[in-house]
């Protein structure tokens, strides 16, 4: 009888009545929404458009009332590559049963591990979190999240795996498009786009964005014998004007650090925001 009572007390800890999954950035939100399409799984971003990956999310989460998320089953994080990701820590305070799905780390399949590198020329040696700009990494992230979700929500397993297959094929087509880009070399002004440069297999040189002026931009390009500037931060108009006048190429890349607003509600995050950013980057790289 005593063993039976203990079993009955423990059982509720492992039974799930909620179908809520949480994210805290545009990338994981898009991945999770795409994988859970036409399922009973509810996906919410705790910030929506109220924060971004460059903000101090630890401080922001500390100020929020997270009790509304205490019934969540899982959080999707970037813990292994993003030092500032504190979503799991904060939700764990509300719910001891919460499951952490790190989209960049697989506990069951080493072949799915996302390839990460250190930041360029950084004394802090922090990991560059923007791993998905290498589209092969993005495919691995989809697989990691899908496999864990399929184990948690067994009734939706078939649909999750079907959605996974669709999205992997979609990324395959995107990889083919990216492979057709004619670009041999570029000067990178922001280190967050290094994964993209590596994926494109181009020769790249890093320069500090803050050191670039309208007076030195041409000298820098000519000294390096490179005609292309790539950056995730928009250049000043006077610099862009000089580049255009001298037939130099300026490519602005969106890393996905900032959320894209929903068309109908600016306070909500756009479900396919990452997909849109990747297509926009493709157009910019092709000069369309």
From TrEMBL:
- A Gene Ontology molecular-function term? metal ion binding
UniProt-listed Pfam families: ZnuA
Would you say which domain of life the source belongs to?
Answer: Bacteria
InterPro entries xrefs: ZnuA-like
Q: Which residues form the signal peptide?
A: 1-19
Arranged from A to Z, the UniProt key words for this protein are:
Signal
What name does UniProt use for this protein? Periplasmic solute binding protein
* Originating organism: Oceanivirga miroungae
């Amino acid at each position: 009888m005593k063993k039976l009572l203990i079993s009955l007390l423990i059982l509720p800890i492992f039974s799930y009545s909620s179908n809520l999954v949480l994210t805290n950035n545009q990338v994981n939100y898009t991945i999770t929404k795409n994988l859970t399409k036409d399922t009973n799984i509810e996906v919410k971003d705790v910030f929506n458009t109220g924060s971004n990956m460059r903000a101090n999310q630890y401080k922001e989460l500390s100020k929020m009332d997270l009790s509304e998320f205490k019934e969540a089953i899982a959080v999707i994080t970037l813990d292994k590559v993003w030092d500032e990701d504190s979503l799991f820590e904060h939700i764990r305070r509300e719910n001891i049963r919460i499951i952490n799905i790190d989209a960049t780390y697989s506990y069951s399949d080493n072949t799915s591990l996302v390839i990460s590198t250190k930041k360029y020329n950084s004394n802090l040696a922090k990991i560059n979190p923007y791993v998905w700009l290498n589209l092969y990494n993005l495919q691995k992230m989809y697989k990691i999240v899908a496999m864990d979700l399929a184990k948690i929500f067994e009734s939706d397993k078939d649909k999750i795996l079907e959605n996974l297959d669709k999205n992997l094929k979609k990324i395959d087509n995107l990889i083919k498009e990216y492979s057709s880009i004619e670009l041999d070399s570029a000067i990178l002004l922001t280190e967050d786009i290094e994964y993209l440069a590596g994926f494109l297999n181009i020769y790249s040189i890093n320069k500090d964005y803050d050191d670039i002026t309208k007076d030195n931009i041409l000298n820098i390009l000519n000294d390096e014998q490179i005609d292309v500037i790539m950056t995730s931060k928009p250049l000043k108009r006077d610099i862009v004007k000089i580049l255009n006048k001298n037939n130099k190429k300026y490519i602005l890349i969106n890393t996905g650090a900032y959320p894209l607003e929903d068309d109908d509600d600016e306070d909500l995050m756009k479900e396919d925001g990452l997909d849109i950013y990747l297509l926009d980057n493709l157009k910019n790289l092709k000069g369309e």
